[in-house]
Each structure stands twice: as C-alpha cells, then as structure tokens.
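Exercise: predict the structure of this protein bound to 5'-O-[(L-methionyl)-sulphamoyl]adenosine.
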Amino acid sequence: MSTVYLTTPIYYVNERPHIGHCYTTVLTDVAARFHRLFGRDVFFLTGTDEHADKVADTAAAHGMTAPRWADRNAEHFRAAFELLGVSNDDFIRTSQDRHKHRVGRYIAALQASGHVYKGAYTGWWDASQEEYLTETTAKEHGFKSPVTGKPLAQRTEDNYFFRLSAFQDRLAGHIAANPEFIMPEARRNEVLGRLRQGLTDVPVSRSAGPAPADGQAWGVLMPDDPAHKVYVWIDALFNYLSVIDTEPRRRYWPPAVHVIAKDILWFHAVIWPCMLMALGEPLPRTVYAHSYFVRDGRKMSKSLGNFVDMGLIGGYCRDFSRDALRWFLATQGPLGSTDADFAHDKFVEVYNAELANGLGNCAARVGNMIEKYCAARLPDPGPHASGLDDLPAYAWPSTTAALVRAAVAHADSFEIDQALRRGVDLVRQVDGYINATEPFKLAKRAAAGTPEHARLSAILYHCAEALRIASLLMSPAIPDACAALWNAWGCAPPAGTPLSALSQWGGPHSLRPGAPLHKGSALFMRADPAAPPPTPMQAPADPGTGPSAS
Ligand code: MSP
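Solution:
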C-alpha cells in the first residue's frame, strides 16, 4: 500500500491559535482524509514549536517558567484542532525527549561528516522572527523586519554553521528536475530567484546563555558544547524526521507534502532539503506554501487586534457547525498564491450555496421523495440502472467516474479546493436532473406497474446513488454531515475500503434497491444573510487555572 506522510508547520506556543494556524491544519487534514479515502497508508503530523526565545520571554513576562507556559499553550493548540475535527496521527512538541534526543543525534552526525563546523557570524538579527537576515535583505527592508517592521540589530556570535553553500548546485538541480518540489509555481520562482544570488552558510546554533535557575536549558544543547544550543529553526525543522525515525514509522519517509505558508518558505524549500541531503535522507516530494488569510481586506496582526481567534472560530462552529467552517476554510482559503479574505458575508454565501442549498437541500429533496413515493425504501431502477435512454446527457456511470477521477487527480496535485468542488458539481448535476425529469409530477400519475412508475423508480435511484458518490467526494471536508447522511441512508462506507471500490456505480457498495432509506434530519440549516456574525464563544480557560485546580 502506498504511504503518504503529510505535515503542517509546528506552531509557536508564545501565542494562542488563530484562523491562520487552523487554516493550514484543516487544509492538511482534508488532504489526509482524501488520501485515506483513496486507500493509502497515511501519517499526518502537526504540533508545536516550543524552544523559541520569544516563548521563554513571553513566559517570563507572565511570571511563568517556559515549560509551564508551553504546556498551557500547546494544550490550546491541541484543543483547537480537536474542536475542528482534525485527524492527526501524532502531535509533536519539540520539548519532548523523543524529539530532543534525536536532534542531538542529527547534529552530531552533521558534525562528524563535516557539514557542521564552528566559526564566527555577524548578521542582522530579526528578534521578532528569530532569524538572521543577510546584509542585502536587511538593506532592502531599511534594516527593519520584513515581516513585523521592527528594527533589526547587528550581532556577532560564535556559532556552529551548516555548510549550506556546498549544496547550491544540487538543490538547484533538484528543483529544476522536480517541478512539483516547490508549489505553487510563484513560490518556486521566488526561491529560484533568491537561489541565483548564491547560498551562504547558515548558523545552526546560538549562545545557550546562563543556565536557568532550574538547571534545565530551554532548547537542545549542542553535542559536547553546553555553551551553545541548537538554533530554534533547525531544532524545529527536525521534527518532521524525529517523529518518523522509529522502526514502525520509517516507512512513511520521505514526506509527500510539507504544508506551510509563504512566510516560512526559505527554511522549508532551501535549508531543510540541504540538511536532509547532508544526512543522506531522501527529500520531501513537495513543499506547498499557501498564501495568507486576511480579514475584511486587512492583514491580521497583533497591533490591529483583528485576528480571527478561537473565540470567533468557536462561534462559527456553534452557529453553523464545524463542518461549515472546515468547508469554508478548505474551499475559500488562500490556497495558491493570492491571499484570501475571511469575511462573514462570503462565509454565509458559500455556506448557503454549497452546503444548505447544495448537498443539504438536494439530499433532503431526494430523501423526501423516496419516503413519500417509495415507502422509505430505495426503489429498484430495473433495466434503467445506468440512466434513462431518452436523457443521454445524464449517463451516470461515466459522469460519476469522470468526476471521481478528476477529484483524485486534483487531490494528488494538492488542489484541495478543486477536489472538493467535483462533489459540488455532482450535486448540481443531480439538481439539474431532478428539474429535467420532474419526478414529483411523475409521481402523480405513477401507479404501481405502469411505465411511469418504472421511470420514477429509476430517477430516484439515480439521484440517491449519485448523491452518495457526491458525499464521498465532499466528506474529507464535511465528515460529520456525511456520516449523518450515510447513517440515514444506510450506506456508511466500511473502514479502509478505497474510493475506487466505493464509488463504482452499481458496484458492491452502491445503494441496494429495497433497503430502507430515511430522510434523516437536515444536514445544514439555511442561514439568514442579514443576521449578524456569530458572537464569540468565551475564550477557553487556561488548563490548570479552573476552580478545581486551586
Ligand atoms: N514555528 C514556526 C514554524 C516551524 S515549522 C518547522 C512558525 N510558527 S507560527 O506559529 O508562526 O506559524 C506559522 C504558520 O501558521 C504559517 O506558515 C501558516 O501555516 C500559518 N499561518 C499563520 N498566519 C497565517 C495567516 N494569516 N493565514 C494563513 N496561514 C497563516 O512559523
């Protein structure tokens, strides 16, 4: 069975989760669910990046130790992803021993092979991003952080370096030979442009500073040199390998897709693959860097205080369902190279068009008619199982097979929104078919045994079977609603059965004529576009601060 390893960035625990983190994680979750649906052996990883100085600083500012602060915020990320139904197979925290031990080992191996060496470094330090910028980049941005606009500081440090410069040609060759290595194309061109300026060696350590009072360094110390610790970015990148570097999981390497946003492309598309080459590891197939969610047309930032935070996200989950939020993120998010807006009007428009008036309404119409005209049993299509002879435009077996094939191809190219839209296309076809055949009119003159009755039975069978297949294609984004539909229609797919078998028209997993089929409750209630946006849920309490903890 083919393996598929998918990752999200690991998120800094100095802040709480917001829509940006949720977007990347839900998007990757939808991809993971697609691959599982295709019958592949998937490993999906997310987690938290904890050893940044800003984590220690934020902890101190709150009168807390770094580990306690990290415990608390890592829990917020875990809870956020649980709320959104994220199906990750593991949750890595870089402060865990399993990770720290292996980071030490990777660095020691790089030292032994001469790829990591000791030297002095002078550069422009961006404290807000915890990264050094080259003289050229610093100058270009007026010696301010390109991300936060905060002033840069020139610094000289005794450091360990990674011989990045030695990999320039190999990396350029790899990118040229593998167009899917950096996606989308705009990001690939960006990396190629910067690569032409030449690669210089990069520091992989920082001064460890004085030992903290508890004697526990916050980070991973350099092997045999406790005055230095592994630079947080290097420590963090290794998470993708450390989690998998145990016997039963080794089969997942290399990753299929590292999903990230454009802000952290250089680390993932240049530094990380070169470190992997130095370690003799196969490279990830794709680094996919999506764009940003902005809010009502403006960048989200701390200073503007306009983050879509977990309070509001919880409000959307409560008022519309978590499936609704997942659908919006996965189909309207900043996949590709343009930013996307999180705007309430748009949310309601998409929700009504594709979920409430789309799958939801169509399933209710079909379920209703089967209850009413067929005593809640799926009718037998008789000789017309594949379609009506006088309506060749609706050739259901080939129509559904083509949409399934297209969805698989899109998901394989990480066009997650397009993959989901093939399900929407199929729902629209069913709506069109109902309008074209008017089964509700037919029912009035369809006494048992008449040709009208045979026609009505065939139409309703086609509608239900096509909707079953549409729901399979939409299920990676809206698993709860699809499970409810399958429950009402008695067609829950057996675990592990691949889509190729599940989606076969008239195959072993199709709806069985004569089987009970219930309308079930509405999958998505229509939303009033004039109603105000959800009120935020109360922010979740910090773990360990509730009344029971005192
Ligand atoms: N800890 C590093 C990543 C290390 S990975 C080895 C980091 N963490 S972060 O908490 O700042 O998360 C950055 C990531 O969060 C982005 O790459 C993206 O996946 C997500 N997003 C943060 N803000 C975002 C938006 N406004 N829109 C979409 N995604 C964004 O960088």
